[in-house]
What does this fold into?
Amino acid sequence: MTDRSKGEVWVFAEQEEGKLAEIPFELLGKARELASKLGVKVGAVLMGEGVEPCAAALVAGGADVVHLIEDPALKVFRSKAYRHALVELIKEAQPQIVIFGATHMGRDLAPAVASALRCGLTADCTDLQIGDYTDKKTGETFANVLHQIRPAFGGNIIATIVNARHWPQMATVREGVMKPLDAAAREARGANAGTVVRHASHLDGVEIPVEVVEIVRKASSVNLKGARIIVAGGAGVGSKENFALLHDLAAALGGAVGGSRAAVDLGYCEHERQIGQTGVTVRPALMISCGISGAVQHLAGMQDAAKIIAINTDRDAPIFKVAHYGIVGDLNVVIPKLIKAIRNKG
Amino acid sequence: MKTYNCVVCIKQVPDTQKVTGEAMKADGTINRAALPAIFNPEDKNALEAALWVKETYGGTVTVITMGLPAAKAILREALMCGADRAVLVTDRKAAGSDTLATSYILSQAVKRFNPDLVFCGRQAIDGDTAQVGPQIGEKLDCAVVTYLEKLEMDGDTAIATRDIGTGIETCRAKLPALFTVTEKFGALRPFQMRRVMTYKNAEPEVLDCAAIGCEDARCGFAGSPTSVNKIQSVVLAGGAFKEISPDDAGIGGLVAELIADHTIG
It folds into this structure.
């Protein structure tokens, strides 16, 4: 048994149709930080069919080693095939940390891998750090373990999770939370800063009980992450019809429309517009929050906005605690006045 | 015609969506007592999927929950909606289970019923991990289809439509298969009036870990690799916002200020 504390820090490099997602680069940014604390290498796991050309970008993005598995059975993501190949690779190469994006694929694959390896997994982390840990019950101490930080209980608490006794330590990480290496750092690394190591898939004779028939790609019509101005609504908007007012305001400002989880659950807006712990994290220049009381799970996804205007009838709503400007009033009155003022330039 | 034996895994959860101003204490921590215990929303969608299969193709629906005896409430709700059989797995040995131990215990319970189809909600609103479903699937070593939106049966194969984030996938899964179901599948049907009377005081079957053949070392704290090192309540910093009066003068002034500092153009 090798000393696992010398193991690499791995990132699962999610790709579809030979195109890498953004999330592996965000994870690589974090992995470099973790690996340099530990004095180990950063590995990226690249799986698929004919995906070797993606390796150079991963090296420039921060990988010292790209672990490549190519197999026709891995052409399209299928949970069992990916799980089986990755579990075998982890057993063989013994990384100490494996992080996945908290995407649909990552949230399907990572739990299955953790279940097969009987190791711990923390979902939807917003930060990862290396630190020491003392078990309060036994007094045992562990050096350099992965502290996995995530909101829990609807985002109302922030929990730090450790799994000090099991290898590897695994986590999924929210999209848009970690920062990729910047252009200068990527340029400086170049495509020769790492190596590609090819591994067997171990899929011969393994029955995969799922066959993908068709995939219809959806063009993401909602780009909240990139929006400079966001108008967001919550349960206090009152109806789907009233939500149209928010679209009018966003149109007047050239912004995008988002919603709290309550607004999504009530059917006022689509799921892809959800801002918060289980939705998208946004950092717009201006956030106009309408009828959102401010559950912490929502605030977690928007409180870094440069300017926040809150409109709510309840003066005691938590949203006012993060707002820069507060309007205590009925949004059905306030929003039309805002639109008018914007059209008249103040 | 083939009929299908379905098992649905459900969970009773605190209604974390009710954490608004009223449920927060003055120090910014949560007043948990102010939160009602509810049937986890997406587990209702999972139950609907099973009831739909039973109604369309025939078969049975068994609901299983792991939790305290108070969780019988959601089992009764499931019976009132049309489930045939309800099972509570409750045991002090299960206390402190993380997702790995929970999925182990539930998978042991599910195996007893030898189902063709297993349905779980995509995730529970108290933890939001979405891990237990796929982990039960791994332990059953069956086909796993996450983010299910639509289903059709074709003999020993399920034709499933699922959300993959970047698109919508249609796949064929060989039975037995486990699905994690999203709200897109459709809302749970209402209670049937005659079943409300029959099941309002129904006692579900109660099983402990030993009865479903669990190894102690894989249950509860002992079987959970993860531990919580620290919990911080999220305390919001003070309310130093600038108040704008909700009239033309106040709002006009605000817009002028935002234009002046180039926030809006």
Observations:
- The first strand of chain A starts at residue 9 and ends at 12.
